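Fold it.
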Amino acid sequence: MSFYENRILPHLIDWACSMDPIMALRQRIVPRADGVVLEVGMGSGLNLALYDSDRVDYVWGLEPSEGMRRKAAGNLAQSPVKVKWLDLPGEAIPLEDESVDTVLLTYTLCTIPDWQAALRQMHRVLRPHGKLLFCEHGRSPAQRISHWQDKLTPYWKRIAGGCHLNRPIQDYIASSGFCVEELENLYIEKAPHIAGYMYLGVASKLAHADTRG
């Protein structure tokens, strides 16, 4: 991992992902987590203060970046819930089948290199009646915006830790053995539309889904 990725990027990501409009969206999703939680891409732990400690048993925090885990130290020290670190990428979740009640994704699916493998792993570890909570940015339905998302993503990835501007989040989740039960889309305030089209929602695990492939 380069000096930029380990020492500079974590601070930039923490700043961008902790702006007031972003935190307001997190506040609408994170408190809905319950039971044993798997947070994929915990980053600097911005969600920790938002968990409802009366509903959550503990949180598996999956975060492959050493720099982000180091940046999380302050939030971890004040966390209202117990956290168990997993320092592996989202494509490799070392948990047993059907062992978590909630999977939480906040501004993570845009970055995971092999999103298909990662979502298969999330599907595997989620209990049959569990839920996938997500708050992500992604592809806009407006053609003039998605055109620029496609055009800029190759360059954006280089400076933003692999982040894609143009991933159709709902389609990715729905194609991975989940049923999207709730979905809200909006452009976030004070953000350019190429990076500010949001997907907030809840998905359940489809019975008998084939997530191979």
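The longest helix spans residues 143-159.
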